[in-house]
């Protein structure tokens, strides 16, 4: 069961590179109008004055471009009432603001949810952060008595549902002259727990892998992609390498990366019962990804 319709709207908090280049791209390709919420005046002005921007995917097999249209931006700092109305009439709310910022976006989301009618389909809320249980964290802040009156919690589930997710895509530092355009790798993974949505309709969003048990995918990603990336970058920085690609050309650094990922492979296989051969192949794919020479991924990032 999918949430479809001629006019679908998603509100996305965080109009930075991940928001524009990853999440909004998939929402756009799935037929949603995207309303960005941010606090950076210059970025909001640029978004509202630009009818389109490009998402450029690079890899060894070539480069592809997506043109993104049908979006707007609202300053959540100065136009809160407008943002509340957008949330109250949206199908989906997503965010890529950083785990520490979730508590700051929760109050306005709570107000938008409270304004929704219980007769409408619930709002689908998905936090897209590098953190375990980020949507649960956001939901906890939204349901805090300071943001939602306790008497409104009894039927809150009729107005909003919350699903945790795991996202995986390398978005390097961008050319300062790129404008709104975003360059990123071709590979992506966006895994979302479908169980909170099953009785009210799973949103039709291209690219999401809907699963019943998210935990294995989150930990596999954090302890393979992030661990491998960080290991290469830390050792690369210490050895004065410029990019992660440069770092991985150093045999000593590559050995450190493989050593770290061998330890995490054993943990992941033991804990989550992934096949050892499958996890070994995943490790090789990740090493190739983080060493993508087309990304210009500086070790400092």
UniProtKB/TrEMBL annotation:
Chain ranges of the Mannitol dehydrogenase C-terminal domain: 213-301
Source domain of life: Eukaryota
GO terms of molecular function: mannitol-1-phosphate 5-dehydrogenase activity
Sequence ranges assigned to domain Mannitol dehydrogenase N-terminal in this UniProt record: 9-199
A GO biological process held by the record: mannitol catabolic process
Keyword Oxidoreductase (UniProt): yes
Cellular component aspect of the GO annotation: cytosol
UniProt keyword annotations, A-Z: NAD, Oxidoreductase
Family matches, as Gene3D superfamilies: N-(1-d-carboxylethyl)-l-norvaline Dehydrogenase, domain 2, NAD(P)-binding Rossmann-like Domain
Family: Belongs to the mannitol dehydrogenase family.
Protein name in UniProt: Mannitol-1-phosphate 5-dehydrogenase
